[in-house]
Amino acid sequence: MFALVKELLTFLFLLSIPNLIIAEERKFNLGKIATKTEIAGWDIDVRPDGLGAPLGSGNAINGEEVYAEQCASCHGDFGEGLDRWPELVGGEDSLDTHDPVKTTGSYWPYASTMYDYIYRAMPFGVAQSLTHDETYQVVAYLLYMNEIIEEDFVLNDKNIGKIKMPNVEGFLMPDPRPDIANVNGNPCMQNCNTPTKIIGKARDIDVTPEEEKS
Amino acid sequence: MKKNKQKELKINRRELLAGSASLGAIALSSKVGYSKDTNQNNLPPNVPEWTGVLGEGVDANPYGMPSEFENNVIRRNVEWLTASTESSVNFTPIQDLEGIITPNGLCFERHHGGVSIINPRDYRLMINGLVDREMIFTLDDLKRFPQTNKFYFLECAANGGMEWKGSQLNGCQYTFGMVHNVQYTGVKLSDLILETGLKPKAKWVLAEGSDSSGMTRSIPIEKILDDCMIAWAMNGEALRSEQGYPARLVVPGWEGNMWVKWLRRLEFGDMPYMTREETSKYTDLLPDGKARMFTWVMDAKSVVTSPSPEKSILYRGIHQLRGLAWSGRGKIKRVDVSLDGGKNWQTAKLHDPVMSKSLARFTLPFEWNGQELLVQSRAIDETNYVQPTIHELQKLRGVNSIYHNNSIATWKVNKDGTVDNVRLG
Question: What is the separation of C-alpha B36 from the centre of its chain, rounded to a whole number of angstroms?
């Protein structure tokens, strides 16, 4: 009898140990530990250094076919963009002009971002439907169209973090704001020297939705 | 149907009482609008038509809606701005709102892959990466953490983005309406990570949505631990689907794009993830072709909501100018108003409560006797930052940076009381 009680007490004690330890570590003891499989299904991001890039590969030759089927209806056969859908190709030397064209080639600093975004969000409305190989193929095709790689270059999880994009040096950090003149909270209050001539009117541009004009 | 019948009854009753039908009353019963004309039969000394009948009982509207006479107070979009409504934006009708709280149904929408509809039973938040324990939480789990309730504005970084080159859209709603202000209920991330632990190398967090765009942004750990929260309620009720139901990230004072809706995952890492939204978008292109990156804070800003292009002046004499001011760096300290294009300024009245990273309401009485006015407002926040003119911003950043236009707008009041969005120079 005593032995049984002892055994039961030991059993209860052992049962309570994990809870005690977890309670100490986890302040509220809420939620559950995620399994590797659960994480693998949702952890789809790919970093600039290639971390997170899934096993797979593809070149532009194969990518052209996938692109024509999955992407061209919005982005155009040559990545020129149809209607108001984004253009993906070209725009080099345009960023400092009046009409900058920001494409994967002219603006995007990392090829990893192309993989990450295309896999997670494209084709529009059919997110995460491309295979990893198809995604590498499409990225390779866009890199090729932007004259960043050759058409037979095999893009894969090992080298996607090493592709050098033309505009990788085009970004400035950290944020310099506040970048305006510091008047220490005491701006001019009377007879301030400021232009008051009307040089433009939204009404004349006439792009405001109709209803608002009433 | 029932409602229409009731109105017919009302009108018949009124006809009996007054002995005549009026066009105004007929227009009142129409679904599409109502008479802008006053019905003299409802004015003293007559007994108004609604007094002589019983109104609707309780539960006629289990979830109440605004008066039908306010049916012009709605979100609006600009169709030509975007290729599809699923990846688009609309605007809060701030010109029609009072105080500082934005009603939930009027909070502007910005989606990148449409509105996800999520059964809260199927909601899971995953936390992985550089934490001691990679974990998954249900919505009920989140609600059992210590709770926080905070008022914050949310402004899209592109609010006013169409106005860099010149005045383009003739509306307060279209030029300033990508902002809303609600009270959030949720759990602070600094409390949530007590459960997962944090590895010393964790410097960045990738926040990821479960919508069709899989929205992702990198956020530095300092901000995450400072005041970020996961919210499940706004203004006392569950989040609206279009605002991320059942749970969204709240990143006080920082650009709206980072407030990931339908939040499904937080990954802790040792470097930023350089997602599409923080490289190809939400970077601020300068005249020399370089672009600023990670410009998160929304600088101080203000706008006069009335008079404004949608709010003509209808009467001569006294008026109450109304407006909103906010700053991502803290509290609004002062708002000045000019009626002559910025030559002379007077300080407006700031209304309680004035809270950090929340909209603040200001008013100023003024007389109008048919003269032209150039109306401006200028916010000053508790860091002594003064809202700049568009010329100051253009000198530093050119006209192609799209984002972070927090400049002073000018509304020209014409002699007939109509109001135009104009650019001075």
Answer: 28
Domain with CATH 2.60.40.650 in chain B: 301-422
Look at A83 and B79 and tell me if their CB atoms are within 8 Å.
Answer: no
B171-221 tens-digit pLDDT: 999 999 999 999 999 999 999 999 999 999 999 999 999 999 999 999 999
DSSP 3-state of B41: helix
Q: Of the candidates B274, B345, B425, which has its C-beta nearest A112's C-beta?
A: B274
pLDDT tens-digit series, residues A141-167: 999 999 999 999 999 999 999 999 999
| Interface check A24 vs B, CB under 8 A | no
CB atoms within 10 A of CB B392: 16
Residue B145 has pLDDT above 80, yes or no: yes
Contact residues, chain A, for B293 at CB < 8 Å:
171-173
Q: In terms of CA atoms, which chain A residue is nearest residue B77?
A: A209
Between CA B363 and CA B90 the distance in angstroms is 26
d(CA B381, CA B253): 12
- Second CATH level (architecture) for the domain B96-287: Alpha-Beta Complex (3.90)
Structure tokens at B295: 């410009």
What residues of chain A, 85 to 104, have a C-beta less than 8 Å from chain B? 85, 95-96, 98, 100, 102, 104
Which of B84, B195, B420 is closest, CB to CB, to A31? B195
Chain A residue numbers with beta carbons less than 8 Å from the beta carbon of B167 are 200-202, 205
Q: How many CB pairs under 8 A join A and B?
A: 269
**Domain with residues B301-422, CATH architecture:** Sandwich (2.60)
Give yes or no for A176 touching B (CB within 8 A). yes
**Chain B residues inside the 8 Å CB shell of A39:** 126, 128, 134
Ordered structural domains, chain A, with CATH: 42-162 (1.10.760.10)
- The residue with tokens 């049962």 is A15
- pLDDT at residue B36, rounded to an integer: 76
Give the whole-angstrom CA distance, residue B255 versus residue A85: 24
Confidence of residue A25 (pLDDT cuts 50, 70, 90): confident
Give contacts of A27 with chain B, Cβ < 8 Å.
194-195
HEC string of A120-179 equals HHCCCCCCCCCCHHHHHHHHHHHHHHCCCCCCCCCEECCCHHHCCCCCCCCEECCCCCCC
- Could you tell me what percent of chain B has a pLDDT over 90? 91
Other beta carbons less than 10 A from residue A82's beta carbon: 14
Mean model confidence pLDDT for chain B: 93
| Residue B136 CA: distances (Å) to CA of B62, B133, B173, B237, B357 | 36, 10, 40, 24, 30
> Alpha carbon of B89 to those of A190, B80, B141, B161, B378: distances in Å?
39, 11, 32, 12, 26
- Asked if A199 is an interface residue toward chain B (Cβ–Cβ < 8 A), one would say yes
Q: What is the pTM of this model?
A: 0.90
Boundaries of CATH 3.90.420.10 in chain B?
Answer: 96-287
With contacts defined as CB-CB under 8 Å, which chain A residues touch B400?
98, 100
